[in-house]
Amino acid sequence: MKTAKNHSTFSEKTRRLLGFLLKVAFAAAIIVYLVGKNAAAVAEGFRAFNYWWLLPAAVLYLSHMIVCAYRWFVLTRVLNIRLTWPEALSLTMQAYFFSLVVPGGAIGGDVVKIGVLSTRSPAGSKVEGAFTILMDRIVGMIALFLTAIVITVPAIPVLMQVSIPGVPLDRTVKILGIAAIFLLCLTGLAASGAIFFHRTLEKIPPVGKLMHWADQLSHGMVRRLTNAADAYSRAWKVTAQTVLWSIPLVHLMTVAVFACLAAGVRAEGADALTLIAAVTIGNIVGLIPLFPSGVGARDVAAITILVAGGMAVGDAKTAQLLYTALVIGFSLFGGLFFIFDPGRKRSQELLREAEEQSVSEVLHD
To answer: What's the pTM value of the predicted model, to 2 decimals?
Structure first.
């Protein structure tokens, strides 16, 4: 039996590894294709690029990552999770790293983040700790979808100019594509916001019975999650504030990063509206878990919109490839936080406290 179990585990790991390698190969193939279609122009773009612009781009991208860590840190305070700022920064950077090297994209990084956080959470608070990561993801997506909705309306003329070589795109197809972006954003907002209205959903008989059944099956986990959601609903000002400042300090910050790279390429033709639309929609497409850290899908979407907005193909591809290089580079940089994690000692202390508390409760009983 043990041998069969080990064989099953090995097969599962092998399947996941092969799936991950396939995704990496797919993303790499897309990048190679993008470069190969305009190899001379891209090569000239890299030769002419003013590499001093990498410095402000890197600072801005790192700042965006730090803001994401701070957002999560603020959200953990709502549930009184015992997490210090250095730990929040370290775990966030580790999540970026694992989003790149672990199957599942951004979700894969969150899974690892949850696992590490659970080791440094005392008994009885692990579910709530994991919920803060989910809430951070929800807040980030709400901010991203709101940004996309606001920017897509004035960007419709640019989006109507989108063309894909070899793919016929008439006016109807383009309108349907724009409508799909709106529908995706609205669906994402509805799904993200539903958690704050779970009490209303519980009043619907089938939903209420299903949640009650799931709560019994999970030994009260659903109840604990809904209580955590209620805590964020009560702290609505904090939750709303994190959404609002995530728009300029997280999502528009990545636009500023790309603007620096475009300046380094000396790109012309695309205005600020096109840049915001390209980067924002590209980031939404990059959420598809078929690509490691969104590499490949985000590049195609962003380049297509930039070219539609008037930027030269070579300039658009050069700037986007440099942006992807920054994403990969800083994700790999997050691996250093895994190696030199400042919270490991604290994890051991929390676990020791939890064990002592459990012993004390047993003796008291």
So the answer is: 0.81
